[in-house]
Amino acid sequence: MSCNSSSAIGPIGVFDSGYGGLTILKEIRRVLPDYDYLYLGDNARAPYGTRSFDVVYEFTLQAVRYLFAQGCQLVILACNTASAKALRTIQQHDLPSIDPSRRVLGVIRPTVEKIIGMSQSRHVGVMGTPGTINSRSYELEVAKLDETIAVYGQPCPMWVPLVENREADSPGADYFVKKYIDSLMSKCQQIDAVVLACTHYPILLPKIKQFMPSSVNIVSQGAIVADSLSDYLRRHPEMAERCGKGGECRYLTTENTSKFEELASLFLGCDVQAEHVDLSKE
Ligand code: DGL
Hints:
13 helices, binds D-glutamic acid, Rossmann fold, 282 residues, six-stranded parallel β-sheet, 2 domains
């Protein structure tokens, strides 16, 4: 597909494997309410967290192409797994041939820029999906900015299913929340900052706070990504001009729309209407 359209205007695309990106979108809309947004959740193929590099890349590229075809000039991968496994290849390999004037940004770099200033002990924990943790993306990005910071990754494979199954505040969730926090803290007692490196995890925050040692700073990504996008648009007025400003937001899902609408209300705290899309043709 070639769609060179440097003079076109479109909504800011926000992509996630499913619902988690809504926690990012909510903060982005709070900080930048005037822009138009197009949210795309690949709910029918989620979770991405346990999928291979190749599959996450293929699915993410399909989503980016779809959002570009809807007119988005700027797409945020509001998913750590997609940012870890697909962003770099899309930026370096695909964008130049699709449309070099468009942009795809992820959530890992802005998060890392923030956390390196939050740890006094210089020992930081990262909790994420197996895909994000096994990619070592956080370690690599932190090392680029500050080699003296030690990063300890903790995969939390049960946390996304707990959220997706509306068990985030049930007594049964306690076991898995405590289990992964204990496992992380047993790797290094000096950890004093922990990144929730999965967009679903803010929904578990009350329980995470309950079991995390009180000396640890817990970092959620929504506000960080929102501030980073605001800064990006300020530094790139040519891109800001190509993002529509009607304050509108549409929601697309690859799943059944009523299922999406039901769970989206949990993430957003308000009701939304969704439209069904098929990415497999992209
Ligand atoms: N949204 C994904 C992330 O931030 C988690 C959900 C999934 O595994 O698809 O990593």
